[in-house]
Amino acid sequence: MARNVELMDEAAVRRALTRIAHEIVERNKGVAHVVLAGVRTRGVYLARRLAERLREIEGQEVPVGVVDVTLYRDDLTYLKPSGDPLVQGTDFPVPIEGKVVVLVDDVLYTGRTARAAMEAVISRGRPAAIQLAVLVDRGHRELPIRPDFVGKNVPTSRDERVYVELVEVDGRDLVTLREARRDRDGRGPQAEGASEATSGGEE
User: Fold this and answer.
1) What was the pLDDT predicted at 91?
2) Which of 30, 51, 123, 131 is 20 to 30 A from 67, alpha carbon to alpha carbon?
């Protein structure tokens, strides 16, 4: 039987985001210079939730930008039928020069998405610092990238995959660990970065 382990339920996700919000405030001595940047798709919703928590804690609005990493990935998977990268756009509601940009994503794995997100941010301006917040860190880094804020550290094997479901997309908050899907011929786990219809990806 395939392994299917619940890692975080709705309450655990809520607690993790609240803790991350407090850590962001402590690390940056407030949020006056903080801009959140959600990595499409689920990172955007997580960033918006963090902004709500920060408003409750600090009493001020924190801008939320959207980062699309497609153009900056060195192992592009998501392509149009023409073979061109699928671009949805990177956008910030305020200038990021001199700001602390906190990248927000659901799962940190190889580090390639985080690296690409940093490049996307730098292409839009020169922030004072870039920090990284993730809901789940599953290890197996291929690049020297370390998150500043983590909701949950989860030891995994490369034959497993972390699935993140959020109420805004999937109708519920749930994080599970499952065996990676295999190719039709059964030879091995599904290629990294292949699209998921109902759950968050991971890189």
Assistant:
1) 84
2) 30
